[in-house]
Amino acid sequence: MLKEILNKIFWHPDYKREDFEVVILHRGAEENKKAISLDDVELKGNYLIYFDTYIPLHRILEIRNKKTGEILYKKK
Q1: How many CA atoms lie less than 13 Å away from 28 in the CB half-sphere?
Q2: DSSP for 18-54?
Q3: Distance separating alpha carbons of residues 63 and 20, to the nearest angstrom
Q4: 7-43: string of b/e by CB count within 10 Å (b at 16+)?
Q5: CA dist., res. 28 & res. 18, Å (int)
Q6: Please, which residues have CB within 8 angstroms of residue 21's CB and are 6 or more apart in sequence?
Q7: SS3 at position 70
Q8: What is the CA radius of gyration of the chain?
Q9: CB within 8 A of 42, min separation 6: which ones?
Q10: Rounded distance between C-alpha atoms, residue 50 and residue 70, angstroms
Q11: What local confidence, expressed as pLDDT, does residue 29 receive?
Q12: Which pLDDT value is given to residue 5?
């Protein structure tokens, strides 16, 4: 389900990456969470590439629309 949502955001013409962000598990950050705009990342296999950092998809805690606040994915 997570990969399907990401593929839709990255490749479907009705979606714009800059409208979405992911919240990832990031040890040492406040509450061990960090929000990253999907406009700043690439999707490659089972990783998000954020500048020179590979983030495994299992670290994604949430995907949300920045404009509407709608949560498309939330890890249980």
Answers
A1: 0
A2: GGEEEEEE-TTSGGGEEEEEGGGEEEETTEEEETTEE
A3: 7
A4: eebeeeeeeebebbbbbbbbeeeeeeebebebeebeb
A5: 26
A6: 35, 36, 37, 38, 63, 64, 66
A7: coil
A8: 12
A9: 48, 49
A10: 23
A11: 87
A12: 95
CA dihedral 42, 47, 48, 49 (to 10 degrees): -70
pLDDT of residue 42: 94
Q: Which two tokens stand for residue 26?
A: 């990031």
For residue 76, pLDDT beyond 90: no
Q: In this structure, what token pair is assigned to residue 8?
A: 């839709």
pLDDT tens digits, one per residue of 2-60:
999 999 999 999 999 999 999 999 998 899 999 999 999 999 999 999 999 999 999 99
